[in-house]
Amino acid sequence: FIIMNRYYIFLITILTLGIPICSNSGEGGEDTIKLYLSRMGIQELSSTTEAPDFTLMDINNRKISLSELRGKIVLLHIWATWCKPCMEEMPSIQKVYEKFKDYDFAVLAVSIDREGIEIVRPYVDKYKLTFPILISESGKISNSYWTWGVPASYLIDKKGKIIGRALGQRNWTGDDATRLIEELSGKK
């Protein structure tokens, strides 16, 4: 009876303090990723949502396809030079790119400016952006990714599935974003 009482007292103490008895919380995992997606206001999408592949020209006149980045976590960012929130968000995307580019992480920023490279290149130079900047003058990328406004960002897993979608500006250098990308890319 005394042993049983000690057991119940121990169990109640553990549950009251919220101490995990048996969990993988130290190892991260799907629940941790969901937590950080939620904290960042990123809409979680079904794990079966395949990211539509595309091939676009970058500002250096190279063709880049999303499918070339399989095996990496991809931050796909759809933006425009006339978008004030995009201007405010780009420096944080540059910082997260610099921090994680040597890991299984890539950034693809797709401009939907109809004027194309002529208007995009000065913007890229002004903000000293070093990640790939692609051009979609037709804006068809927006239709492929079910969005009608900018900025819109998508996190794509190593298998090419969309993890989540963020409509509007995000801070990609905050603690939640850093931990999310660490969890996804395996850098801890």
List the helices and strands and how they pair.
Blueprint: H1 2-17, H2 30-40, E1 43-44, E2 55-58, E3 63-65, E4 73-79, H3 84-100, E5 105-111, H4 117-127, E6 133-135, H5 140-144, E7 152-156, E8 162-167, H6 175-185
Parallel strand pairs: 4-5, 5-6
Antiparallel strand pairs: 1-8, 2-3, 2-6, 4-7, 7-8
Description:
By secondary structure, the chain is α+β, with helices and mostly antiparallel strands. Helix content is 38%, strand content 20%. The protein contains 6 helices and 8 strands, in the order H-H-E-E-E-E-H-E-H-E-H-E-E-H. It has an 8-stranded mixed β-sheet with strand order 1-8-7-4-5-6-2-3, with helices on one face. Strand 5 (105-111), helix 4 (117-127) and strand 6 form a beta-alpha-beta unit. Helix 2 (30-40) runs antiparallel to helix 6 (175-185). It is globular and about 45 Å long. The termini are far apart. Mean pLDDT is 86; it is low at 1-27.
What structural keywords apply?
single chain, 188 residues, alpha+beta, eight-stranded mixed sheet, 38% helix, globular
Summarize the structure.
This protein is α+β, with helices and mostly antiparallel strands and 188 residues long.
Structural class: alpha+beta
Total number of beta strands: 8
Q: Percent range for helical residues?
A: 25-40%
Shape: globular
User: Hey, roughly how much beta strand do the residues contain?
Assistant: 15-25%
Largest sheet: 8 strands, mixed
What is the terminal-to-terminal distance? 45 Å
* Tally of individual helices: 6
SSE ordering: HHEEEEHEHEHEEH
Radius of gyration: 20 Å
Could you name the ranges where pLDDT drops below 50 across 5 or more consecutive residues? 1-27
